[in-house]
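To: structure desk
From: M.T.
Subject: fold request, one chain
Message: Could you run this one when you get a chance? Sequence is below, nothing fancy, just the single chain.
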Amino acid sequence: MHYGFHNSISGRRGYAAALDRAEELGTTAAQLFAKSPRSWRTRSLRPGEAEAFRDALAIGLVRRTAIHASYLVNLGADGELWEKSVFSLADDLEKAALLGVDYVVVHPGSGPAERVREGALKALMLAPGGPWLLLENVAGRGRKVGRRFEELADLIAGTPLGVAFDTCHAFAAGYPLHDDPAGVIDELDRTVGLERVPLVHLNDSVGALGSGVDHHANLGEGQIGAALAGIVRDARLADKTFIMETPKEADVHNLATFRRWAGIG
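Reply: Done. Structure tokens follow.
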């Protein structure tokens, strides 16, 4: 099991700053943005930046890494927005390949599911040979794609795509993690297949069951509560990478909670 947080890349070290923060906390995984998550503007690699990141990976604690795609990406859109979304995602995939990052995670977007699938596969075509592209389950308001596990299973069938499982999003979409975490994992395995789910976003939920509210809470302090420990302790997830996207000011608290649940240290 590898675990860590979504970390900032701000500062002189750039991308490697995300690994520096992981080292400070003693975690073995890290997630980061390759560029501003709320802008279409790309971010060029500085001279030596990719090498510094790879060197830090080679000698440090971190063994699993992920890039989260921009929040503006909508693979279900039409026209110019779809094109911009595909190229933004391809840019993240290219950056991930240069940095040696394992996964790129993207919210599928809103619109026809076939359009989402087409966009994800085009991004892979534009940036071949990179990391594993994972479609994340969503909390599910409006026409957003990926609320139900069956929908994700259809999207990735017959493709190299995988799935990132977010606990807050699943709960907000109506999966009873507060009451039966093992049963939810059963359903995820039955529909998607756990072999296609390498990464878990471990987040508690501010919103109620089925609320559709994507608002993360500290571990054990939201509507899922202590039952979230059942996800950490599920033996079927022992080889997964756990990323916490919890409030940043509470990293130390959430890390202690995770380690207690996992029986680490």
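Reply (cont.): The domain at 2-262 is CATH 3.20.20.150 (TIM Barrel). Let me know if you need anything else for the meeting.
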